[in-house]
């Protein structure tokens, strides 16, 4: 069941209102096609331009990636132009779409593209409007050095048509900023997905390798269309069985489907696998038997999957086994696996999300403390995979200090596409602005320079982005229409981390909903406002980890008990004096992990960005902030602004009645209704809890809470593995 009963009731109620809505000219939108809908170009002048510019397709298939490019063009052009485009062997007239590499297309080899192709590099592409055959015909050329670049170019061209861009003077050279653009699936072998909110795992292990679901190919198409070039199939909390022969043949079958689309397969390696499936008494990385076991395992994997990408490892974190179990370092563990993979060209992605069994003074400091001393110790085929922030995918965190601290070891930045802490499947939260924030942050490792852009600093060590996938076997892949935008944004940013959120949102809206400015403008505005809205109603002013325990859905600022650094009170430090975690030298001194001048900026109450105030400082309830308002007043204003923004999003969406197909219109309306209810839940539960410390009144006119603090505290969430929500909250 996708929408809870309250939302369903609201959806049904709205049906009457929508009876007269205009259905755009497209099949019912169930979300399956993602951003590859290829609806006919609505602007008639543009359609005529496209039909004149693309009258025949010249492309040599033969090889699987070229065949995939041809299939996509045939499908896409058919849909967009509303008529088939004939395929020819060589350019015969004006309006040729010429596609290929200098190696597989004599016509392309004859064009003056050498400089542009050099710029495009191994994965990039060139798209140009050019005369071909001695100037006789006007053509559009999609060229690349390798077939995969051709496929990326084809998807780019189709996107230009989908967004109704003019083709005249077309001149594009595009190359990805990062070599590694990966999805990380947290999928278990039993079909469940850790932190998955879109159904079960896509991987149907029981029926593989004999039967392959058609979705596997569509998954590969979707990824290739946004430049993703690798997928880690299994959960970081790993199961060693994936490395057994019975599973490796299944993995090989998936790799075969993904290969034409340029997608390499990776697996998570459980560090204790030599014991669990190898029959050894130890997994000590310095033990010769263990090393030999991993080397043989790597040989076996590469026999089955010659282009296997490598291993992702979560070790000595949250109870996972690792080298420290044998008093060895992270480098000892990573290097052992790296040595096993190196002869085959494989990589180890060793995660810096370490969370040891001892409670540290400040949990956010552990990664730098453990990894910085090892900076010179890793093999060249080891990357350290670092979450965007030092805690755990919160609505807002400062950038992870490790980005400025590792000057020799290459890094991967891990982002979470599945919104574990941001309303999961039901809240509309567009994540690109959050990712943009970290990708553009300055570490000052070598003077100013964005973390992700890596113009001049330690961030230049970043080799790729890894996104924790939000994909499951729901018909719409992601659990909601708008969650698809986050998958899309992740891929686009992994290709070009400096792409502005607004541009990503606009292209997604145009492709997914409509090019009509009456739709584009308001929906882009909603998307761009949505992340700050969630920060405001969940954890404003630098608060973090105030979610309910376990499932992380809904507020739980009172959570205490058990391991201290897994509780909300550990992070909020609310007391009668004030609120926030002192991470300056008078507190945990976590600021020391940032380089000057960032360290000083964060450490000072005068210069810390106010959006991170309570992350770094314990602030008195009555202390005045830059606005002139007290902390208490400012907090209240932020919670209310979060609720108000969601209400504005609702009104904005309601204004699209008739401009968006009725199915999606109602689905989104239902989700926004949930979000408004739950934004109030967050605001009221949080404000009442803070008030129990501040003892300050709510200003006159502040929207009254529907219930008492005790009522919010006693809410219990049923342990539903798919949708672990507090159903009781729908009662207000
Ligand atoms: C979070 C998440 C876990 C996950 C972990 C990780 O803590 O809640 O489910 O295993 O991150 O990234 O390893």
Question: Can you describe this structure?
Answer:
- The chain has 732 residues and is α/β, with parallel strands linked by helices.
- It has helices at residues 5-17, 44-53, 64-81, 106-109, 114-120, 147-162, 214-225, 245-258, 273-276, 288-304, 330-341, 366-371, 402-405, 432-439, 483-495, 501-512, 517-538, 568-572, 598-603, 613-616, 631-654, 662-694, 709-714; strands spanning 56-59, 87-88, 96-100, 125-132, 137-143, 171-174, 180-184, 230-232, 264-268, 310-313, 347-351, 382-387, 411-416, 462-468, 578-579, 619-620.
- Bound molecules: alpha-D-glucopyranuronic acid.
- Alpha-D-glucopyranuronic acid (GCU) is lined by residues 194-195, 236-237, 314, 353, 392, 420.
- Residues 194-195, 236-237, 314, 353, 392, 420 line the site of alpha-D-glucopyranuronic acid (GCU).
Blueprint (SSEs and pairs):
Layout: H1 5-17, H2 44-53, E1 56-59, H3 64-81, E2 87-88, E3 96-100, H4 106-109, H5 114-120, E4 125-132, E5 137-143, H6 147-162, E6 171-174, E7 180-184, H7 214-225, E8 230-232, H8 245-258, E9 264-268, H9 273-276, H10 288-304, E10 310-313, H11 330-341, E11 347-351, H12 366-371, E12 382-387, H13 402-405, E13 411-416, H14 432-439, E14 462-468, H15 483-495, H16 501-512, H17 517-538, H18 568-572, E15 578-579, H19 598-603, H20 613-616, E16 619-620, H21 631-654, H22 662-694, H23 709-714
Parallel strand pairs: 1-2, 1-3, 3-5, 7-8, 7-14, 8-9, 9-10, 10-11, 11-12, 12-13, 13-14
Antiparallel strand pairs: 4-5, 4-6, 15-16
Bound molecules: alpha-D-glucopyranuronic acid.
The site of alpha-D-glucopyranuronic acid has 8 residues, from loops.
């Amino acid at each position: 069941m996708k929408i809870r009963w309250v939302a369903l009731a609201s959806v049904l109620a709205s049906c009457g209102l929508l009876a007269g809505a205009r259905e755009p000219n497209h099949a019912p939108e169930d979300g399956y096609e993602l951003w590859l809908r290829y609806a006919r170009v609505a602007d008639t002048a543009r359609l005529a331009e496209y039909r004149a510019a693309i009258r025949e397709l010249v492309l040599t298939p033969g090889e699987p990636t070229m065949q995939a490019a041809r299939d996509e063009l045939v499908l896409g052009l058919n849909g967009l132009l509303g008529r088939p485009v004939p395929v020819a062997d060589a350019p015969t007239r004006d309006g040729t779409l010429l596609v290929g590499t200098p190696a597989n297309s004599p016509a392309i080899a004859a064009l003056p593209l050498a400089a542009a192709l050099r710029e495009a590099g191994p994965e990039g592409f060139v798209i140009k409007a050019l005369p071909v055959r001695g100037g006789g015909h006007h053509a559009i050329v999609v060229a690349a050095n390798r077939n995969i670049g051709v496929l990326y170019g084809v998807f780019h061209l189709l996107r230009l048509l989908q967004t109704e861009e003019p083709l005249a003077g077309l001149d594009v050279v595009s190359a990805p900023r990062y070599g590694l653009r990966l999805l990380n699936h947290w999928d278990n072998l039993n079909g469940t997905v850790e932190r998955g909110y879109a159904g079960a795992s896509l991987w149907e292990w029981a029926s593989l390798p004999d039967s392959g679901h058609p979705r596997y190919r569509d998954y590969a198409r979707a990824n290739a269309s946004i430049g993703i070039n690798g997928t880690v199939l299994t959960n970081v909390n790993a199961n060693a069985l994936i490395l057994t022969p019975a599973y490796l043949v299944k993995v090989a079958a998936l790799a075969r489907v993904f290969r034409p689309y340029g997608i390499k397969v990776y697996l998570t390696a459980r560090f204790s696998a030599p014991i669990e499936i190898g029959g050894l008494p130890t997994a000590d990385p310095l033990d010769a038997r263990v090393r030999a076991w991993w080397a043989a395992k790597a040989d076996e994997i590469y026999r089955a999957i010659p282009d296997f990408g490598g291993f992702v490892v979560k070790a000595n974190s949250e109870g996972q086994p690792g080298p420290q179990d044998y008093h060895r370092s992270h480098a000892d563990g990573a290097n052992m696996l790296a040595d096993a993979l190196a002869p085959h060209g494989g990589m180890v992605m060793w995660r810096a999300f370490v969370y040891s069994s001892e409670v540290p003074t400040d949990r956010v400091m552990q990664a730098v403390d453990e990894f910085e001393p090892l900076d010179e110790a890793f093999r060249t085929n080891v990357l350290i995979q670092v979450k965007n922030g030092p805690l755990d995918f919160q609505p807002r965190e400062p950038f992870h200090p490790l980005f400025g601290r590792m000057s020799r070891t290459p890094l991967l930045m891990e982002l979470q596409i599945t919104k574990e802490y941001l309303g999961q499947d039901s809240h509309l939260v567009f994540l690109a602005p959050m990712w943009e924030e970290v990708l553009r942050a300055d570490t000052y490792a070598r003077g100013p320079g964005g973390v992700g852009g890596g113009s001049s600093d330690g961030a230049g060590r970043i080799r790729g982005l890894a996104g924790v996938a939000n994909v499951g076997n729901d018909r719409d892949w992601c659990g909601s229409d708008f969650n698809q935008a986050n998958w899309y944004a992740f891929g686009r940013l992994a290709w070009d981390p400096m792409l502005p959120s607004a541009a990503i949102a606009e292209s997604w809206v145009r492709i997914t909903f409509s090019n009509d400015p009456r739709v584009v403008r308001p929906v882009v505005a909603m998307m761009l406002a949505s992340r700050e809205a969630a920060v405001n109603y969940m954890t404003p002013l630098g608060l973090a980890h105030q979610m309910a325990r376990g499932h992380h859905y809904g507020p739980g600022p009172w959570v205490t008990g058990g391991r201290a650094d897994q509780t909300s009170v550990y992070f909020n430090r609310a007391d009668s004096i004030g609120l926030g975690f002192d991470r300056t030298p008078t507190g945990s001194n976590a600021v020391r992990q940032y380089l000057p001048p960032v360290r000083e900026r964060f450490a000072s109450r005068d210069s810390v960005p106010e959006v991170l105030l309570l992350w770094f400082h314990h602030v008195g309830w009555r202390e005045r902030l830059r606005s002139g308002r007290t902390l208490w007043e400012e907090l209240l204003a932020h919670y209310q602004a979060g609720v108000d923004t969601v209400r504005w999003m609702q009104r904005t969406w309601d204004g699209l009645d008739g401009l968006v197909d009725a199915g999606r219109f109602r689905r989104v309306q239902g989700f926004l209704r949930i979000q408004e209810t739950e934004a109030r839940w967050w605001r009221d539960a949080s404000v009442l809890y803070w008030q129990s410390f501040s003892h300050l009144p709510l200003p006159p006119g502040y929207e009254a809470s529907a219930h008492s603090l005790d009522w919010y505290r006693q809410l219990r969430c049923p342990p539903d593995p798919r949708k672990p929500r507090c159903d009781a909250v729908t009662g207000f």
